[in-house]
Hints:
This protein has 186 residues and is an alpha+beta fold. The chain has helices spanning 90-101, 144-148, 159-164, 171-185, and strands at residues 10-19, 23-31, 37-45, 48-54, 60-68, 73-77, 80-82, 104-116, 125-136, 150-155.
Amino acid sequence: VVGRSDPEFSLIDQRLVHSGYAFDLYATSWVDASGKEFQRDIIRHRGAVAVVALTDDEQHVLLVRQFRTPLNAWLLELPAGLRDKEGESEIDTALRELEEEVGCVAETLEHLVTLATAVGFTDEAISIFLARGLSWTKRRADGAEEESMTVEEVPLAEVGAMIANGEITDAKTVAGLLLAQQKLMS
């Protein structure tokens, strides 16, 4: 859980509206400190990970260009994925996603941050890791989007401009790249 609970607001009821692969949708009822009730639809998410994969010279990052159905567009992103395997740790999920999407294995993974992605309607949290010491293996694409994605080696020095000009718009990718740059400068 990202953040902290507030004793002034209490969940009094929740009803499962839809159960899906990536998330469940609940209709919830709440009460505030004054006793006023209100309703909110909330998406309960399984969680996710993303990986900033640095090349050995630490001057480039490996990104994936992936088709995103909700936007009907191709986005340049960090390799990432759902925590959808029972009992799998965040680190193991990050290692698996890196191999599936990029085709490499990391010698080290360092946790950069855990972010709440869209706090107005979901509890989704995504943990972002910095990967170093990459060695190549075979990509193990999982699903149509991963099968069609491409891997791009992007100069780390150019990501700020790519964010500013709208070439990189995915929030987890923006956060991960900027945090990685900051970490490398310190």
